[in-house]
């Protein structure tokens, strides 16, 4: 995610000590992120004997036995399917709700606009463990417990702040003049949105959707509490890998991390945009 | 046929009044320029005519039809925006065709109109490009072509040249004037650039503080300002003003000089354009402060009666800072303003 070869701030290049500090920090931060991923990959691609053996070579053995065994493990396929189902639902819900909110924030002035922007982020301030029990009780009463939709609702709550903020910055990046020009050229509000705004924001909306997907994909706490039979992959792994051999844990970990990494990498430009950092 | 009539239009944003009860009639095929400093309400007025802004009160009529309750698309207008507003996801061809496609014109008609207007604006070689591959001047041409292709009754332009380089602006100005004169549309053009206004307009509406101060032909606005503001806003350098006190019936004392003037009033201001002053034996006692030879003429900034006074003089004349001059105003070019109201007097 962070890349050591780019973006060294030139203004701080004054002293040798300053340079050293910058590079040390860069290396440290990269190691922080990359070393666990590297170890995970190495071990996932090694044979069970290599994983538990000592000394270690530090290089992958390119043995797919662990991954193969993991893929054939009872329940993995179903958990994977549940994960995808919940993540797709989360994606649809959070864009369906978040994108109109982002559009409204960027285009209209209404009382409480700033408060709303704050509150939307505030939803992330509630610790999920605190909410999990009352939620579980409520879900059982309404029959939403152990369903993909129920879990997707919780994940949507987690993903919406990001959906709103990303789409807000996307819509704000489209000059109102473009919409106005479309209005004067014969469009009503909806047609102007459809013909001018939508084509321009679509890549960003897709990125925002992928991000919501990733949030749901990675979420484990609510998934573990709110599902029993229909576990998602993270909840399934938490439950089963606890008691599994080491090489299986690594294989499971790799199966979780790699899709998330690929997704985040694909949409990184738009995640920066969320914080107003130009990255074009 | 599209005469535009604006009746008693006002716009308030909260407690701020952007427009005070505007009345204005723009004749069919007239080129009207709304001229004023930023914040004078000229863009707001244009946007109300376009339907992008709702007036707080009043009526807008286009071609005998009341339109102030209609959305922009039903007003028979086309607009050119300050930042061009060329759609970045469409080619130049599709940009120009955008409005025609909304009208659901047959493809042959769309092709014909796009090619005709593209030729008119000299962008026929750019039709396959996207806006990102165009220069500012080319984008401006696309925006104008897109408006012209609609063959609207009314074209509204909001400072269309203000983002162009000086040289390009000059070129586009001349071109716009030619193209719009042939298109037989009524044009309303907003600008803060007085040279642009003078060169393009059939009539100029000078705006200040949300009011139209004067609406008249460019020469009329220049020669006979209806208010002190107009004289001080238009012309480079602007008009000179000196306080005048009545010395006898129809005689006014201006900086020690007796000048014949209006019979009525008692607190007036004397006004003269810098180019209407000549060096003579009789005139205002002036001390030259700054001398700027500009080739065709020499701009002298002098002091008269303790006030700054500019004169555009013949460049053959030898003047140096500190010299004492006598500046004589051309009698038929003298204008008088009421010192309280700022309106033309006499």
Written description of the protein model:
The complex is a heterodimer of chains A (280) and B (346). Chain A has helices spanning 16-44, 48-52, 65-72, 76-107, 113-122, 128-142, 148-172, 176-184, 189-218, 221-226, 233-241, 246-266, 268-274. Chain A has 280 residues and is mostly helical. Chain A folds into 2 domains: 10-65, no CATH class; 68-274, MetI-like (MetI-like fold). Chain A starts with 15 loop residues before the first helix and ends in a 6-residue tail after the last helix. Chain B is of the alpha+beta class. Chain B folds into 2 domains: 4-230, 3-Layer(aba) Sandwich (Rossmann fold); 240-345, OB fold (Dihydrolipoamide Acetyltransferase, E2P) (Beta Barrel). Chain B has helices at 42-50, 92-102, 107-120, 136-149, 166-183, 194-200, 218-223, 228-233; strands spanning 4-13, 16-26, 31-35, 57-62, 65-66, 77-80, 154-158, 186-191, 203-208, 211-216, 240-248, 251-254, 257-260, 267-272, 277-293, 297-304, 307-314, 324-329, 335-338, 344-345. In chain B, strand 11 (240-248) and strand 12 form a beta hairpin. The radius of gyration of chain B is 24 Å and the shape is elongated. The interface between A and B is medium-sized, with 17 and 23 residues.
